[in-house]
Amino acid sequence: MDMKATAVASASGTIINAIATGNGSAFGINLKVKATVELFDDGKNNIEGVVKDNPKVKPNLIKRCVKNVLDYFGLNYSAKVITETQIPIKSGLSSSSATSNAVVLATFGALGERIDDELILNLGIKSSFDEKLTVTGAYDDATASYYGGITVTDNIKRKILKRDKFKDDLKVLILIPNLKKNVDVSRMKLLKDYVEVAFNECLIGNYYRALFLNGILYASALNFPTSIAIDAIENSAVTSGLSGTGPSYIALCYEEDVEKVKKALEKYGMVIVSELDYRGAEIIG
Ligand SMILES: Nc1ncnc2c1ncn2[C@@H]1O[C@H](COP(=O)(O)OP(=O)(O)O)[C@@H](O)[C@H]1O
Ligand SMILES: O=C(O)C1=C[C@@H](OP(=O)(O)O)[C@@H](O)[C@H](O)C1
Q: Which atom of ligand 2 is nearest to the CA of 12?
């Protein structure tokens, strides 16, 4: 019986970046990473990883994800894991959380194991920690990628405080500016008291205000332009802000305003037009 499965997971945009306080919030975006995992019961523990379409990206995370699942079940299988992605990498769209979700889920599928959501999320987060790709575990990003929709989380306790949907049917514009990623954790932690203000708005469902405020705060701390989000709003975006630790910015708008907002953002770099995702991660083959 061949042990092989394919799974997808979603990118996620940031409403509240959890690095300053441990509490965060994110929402699913319909850009997917696809992972195919094939297992061989040969007792050799030889795991091969292939990152299609991104030759510069090492397979360390995806090999770690498969290893952590096999170790969890005490199996010494060999494996081949292949990923391909629509998600810009190292950009603040949580490609690492999405990839961990997709590879762990595909490995569970290949094993024919019962789909235990929390176990899959935790093995994915463990893998991201093992590869030093996260500060808080990014449980906000991981759950938004896995379940879709909006999640509001305590990343330290790994608790979902709230799940929700945006009240409007919105398009998601993603700006990939020509700016270098800068993960200065100590500067981000200086924002704690102010991010708490934004988080309280998020907890009561004022997601547009929370996303904008969070973006201004983190862009200021990380020396990214704050004017970009304001340009988006000036051109009818309902909200806009830095996503994660950047450099990507996101803008949410109604369909009829896409061209206007896109034009405003394009002077800063490449713009991807996508939409909200409510499907999350799933096994597709
Ligand atoms: N499609 C993919 N295949 C394999 N590894 C990936 C893929 N996408 C992301 N990764 C891993 O995640 C890392 C990027 O994650 P991170 O630094 O957290 O940035 P972000 O989450 O903002 O995209 C990459 O360096 C790589 O290790
Ligand atoms: O590493 C972390 O703990 C986090 C990383 C950030 O996302 P990116 O990795 O996408 O920048 C942030 O949005 C998230 O709330 C917490």
A: 10
